[in-house]
Design a protein that fits this description.
Blueprint lengths: L6 H6 L3 H12 L1 H7 L2 E7 L7 H18 L6 E7 L15 H5 L19 H15 L5 E4 H7 L3 H9 L1 H8 L5 H6 L3 E3 L12 E5 L4 E6 L2 E6 L5 E3 L1 H12 L3 E5 L3 H14 L5 E5 L2 E2 L16 H7 L2 H9 L6 E2 L5 H15 L4 H4 L3 H5 L13 H11 L4 H11 L9 H18 L10 H15 L7 H17 L3 H13 L7 H8 L1 H14 L1
Parallel strand pairs: 1-2, 1-9, 2-3, 9-10, 11-12
Antiparallel strand pairs: 4-8, 5-6, 6-7
Helix pairs in contact: 2-4, 9-12, 11-12, 14-15, 18-20, 21-22, 21-25, 22-23, 22-24
Length: 525
Amino acid sequence: MKPSIDKTIIDKTNAWPFVEAKKILKERKEYIDKKNKIVLQTGYGPSGLPHIGTFGEVARTSMIVNALNQLTEIPKEIITFSDDMDGLRKVPDNVPNRDLLEKNLNKPLTSVPDPFNKFRSFGEHNNEMLKNFLNQFGFKYTFKSSTDLYSSGKFNDTLKLILQNYQGIMDIIIPTLGKVRQKTYSPFLPVCPDTGKVLEIPVIEIDQNNSKIIFDNNGSKLEKSVLNGECKLQWKVDWAMRWYALDVDFEMYGKDLIESAILSTKIINLLGKKNPSGFAYELFLDEKGEKISKSKGNGITINQWLEFASPESLSLFMYQNPKRAKKLYKEIVPKAVDEYLDFIDKSKNQETKQLILNPVWHVHNGKVPKEEMIMTFSMLLNLVDTSNANSKDLLWKFVKKYKPNIKEENFPIFDKLVEYSIKFFNEVIRERKKYKKPNVEEKKALEQLINVLAECNDKMLPEEIQTKIYSVGKENGYKDNLRDWFKLIYEVVFGDENGPRLGVFISFFGIQETKELISEKIQNV
């Protein structure tokens, strides 16, 4: 792809994908020039179902590729690597047929039966789920399987090199282990010919000439080749081996893997190559502040987000503040969607210098949508509530009542929002609504609001309606704290402490309809 942005603008920007792209070209220049290619890797551990963190790595890495495209025409490749030869250590909480997995613990994931009965193995099932999801987003990537690369001999040359540097690698890893683990640790993990399990057993003897190791298997000698998938490597050594064998120039990883990355860096340096350029991101947390885990299935799943909002809104969430821990659960979706809409709106008046700092430029690979925004997602959710619209057609009819000249085909983003809003309201918001019963004084203030709205008309500007609402609040004891006045309205009318800007909402919903809505809520609570 030919760069289209002036280099002087890129040199000055602090948008993180450009910062990382420039760092890659500087740190990996020797290797990139030699192979005339830039290889970026993302890792996936298929011991559980694919989750949003996995997607985040691919999305963010793709944003760096987009930045690289503005800096160089050298070909780029994203490798999505699945560590599917890893042994299944525990049974995930969110899968069926758990007894089946329990019987196959410690076997390579591609040797564990699929509890969903769809694919040849649990590893293949999860790999396919990952690929199907990434394909929905149109990501450009090359999928690679650990099992395939080990068994095909692709890693053999590097495995021989690791065996040659066995003692040097032990000297790097051993000091980081506890006293007991130091006695049994080996970089190579043989696959047991009898049970099919990945074994963590000590080494008795190394046969360099034949690329074999004799292990102590509970008192019995087990001779295994380190080639062609008969052994796999311990994870930190495996990571370094991948970097070396696949000539990786960049990989990002979670903050929890920083120490592992340091050790893998030492190992690849020992093997004779420089480590890839790296980027450590903060972790995603669920609503309780706990780390999101693919085996626990906590937080919000990939499929749930896509039921409630667009892929682009999820990409935006991934773009923002990657080095800051963020909570990721259902209730944050409306905020993420509204931020996405707001950034699109701002992009319309931005020159290139500001535009490449705008997250949606990176989300859309430089091709930002031009669609005008009709209303926020949050307001649309309130319209679903107050209009009782239970279908996309009904909600569109309601919107058109106040915006008669708009056509669905001219607003594809909003058209999808209409669909998302109904589903999100029904599945997430409805059951959490708690409508406040106003006391005598509060009811009196709300009745005055109804009377004041009776003096308004649908031709008034939202700001004029908002001013009327302010006045009623001030006249009813809320002069020094208008926030409490609006909180009262929101809790009584919308069943929530927060709500839309009322002047704008009423201009859409209608004066008469709003009066009737407030009266109904006062009487029914």
